[in-house]
């Protein structure tokens, strides 16, 4: 049910996902969904956890065997690709806070942060600055990918070229730290 909800969110946008629409998609009456999820909030949380785990798999797999700029580029490209391929389910992750340390959302978020933390090991980032570096990378990658997914780049300049520029910019910044 969660996978179907995530696919539907990618199709109609996360804001457009409803229990009724999901029930229609999977060919059941809405009350039947409550055998699988306790309601819209539960569905949203499960989609967010799924998305974070999928993003962690994509980024973690992409950085294997790389370090420094190569790892940064692989992580950024994998993250961007995930957001562009799954904009609805990724949108579910924004602002969704874990209910506690054992929440699947928390462990999925830690996995994704772990993949980006692995990228930072290729740079000489002081321990007190790691959180700042993670937030900077997330802001850069999230901002670019969500703008692109929303067709937010209207200039005629090549978007892929701009993304490579972003990677080079981030690499220079991290090396300067």
Summarize the structure.
By secondary structure, this protein is mainly alpha-helical. Helices cover about 70% and strands about 0% of the residues.
Q: Topology of this structure?
A:
Blueprint: H1 2-12, H2 19-26, H3 30-33, H4 40-63, H5 68-85, H6 87-91, H7 104-120, H8 130-149, H9 159-176
Helix pairs in contact: 1-4, 4-5, 4-7, 5-7, 5-8, 5-9, 7-8, 8-9
What are the segments in which pLDDT stays under 50 over at least 5 consecutive residues?
A: none
The number of strands is: 0
- Major sheet size, sense and barrel closure: none
The H-and-E topology, N to C, reads as HHHHHHHHH
The N- and C-terminal alpha carbons lie at a distance of 45 Å
Give the mean pLDDT.
Answer: 96
Oligomeric state, counting identical vs distinct chains = single chain
Can you offer a commentary on this structure?
By secondary structure, the chain is mainly alpha-helical. The chain is built from 9 helices and no strands. Helix 1 crosses helix 4. It is globular, with a radius of gyration of 18 Å. The model has no long low-confidence stretch (mean pLDDT 96).
List keywords for this structure.
single chain; 177 residues; mainly alpha; 9 helices; globular
């Amino acid at each position: 049910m969660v996978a179907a909800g995530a696919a539907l969110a990618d199709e109609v946008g996360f804001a457009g996902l409803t229990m009724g629409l999901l029930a229609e998609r999977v060919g059941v009456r809405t009350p039947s969904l409550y055998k699988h999820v306790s309601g819209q909030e539960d569905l949203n949380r499960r989609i967010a956890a799924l998305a974070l785990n999928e993003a962690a798999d994509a980024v973690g797999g992409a950085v294997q065997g790389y370090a420094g700029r190569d790892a940064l580029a692989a992580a950024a490209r994998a993250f961007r690709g995930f957001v562009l391929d799954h904009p609805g389910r990724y949108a579910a992750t924004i602002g969704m806070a874990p209910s506690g340390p054992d929440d699947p959302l928390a462990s999925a978020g830690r996995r994704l942060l772990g993949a980006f933390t692995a990228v930072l090991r290729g740079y000489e980032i002081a321990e007190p600055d790691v959180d700042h570096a993670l937030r900077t990378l997330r802001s850069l990658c999230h901002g670019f990918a969500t703008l692109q997914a929303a067709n937010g780049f209207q200039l005629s300049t090549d978007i892929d070229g701009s993304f490579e520029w972003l990677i080079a910019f981030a690499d220079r910044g991290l090396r300067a730290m």
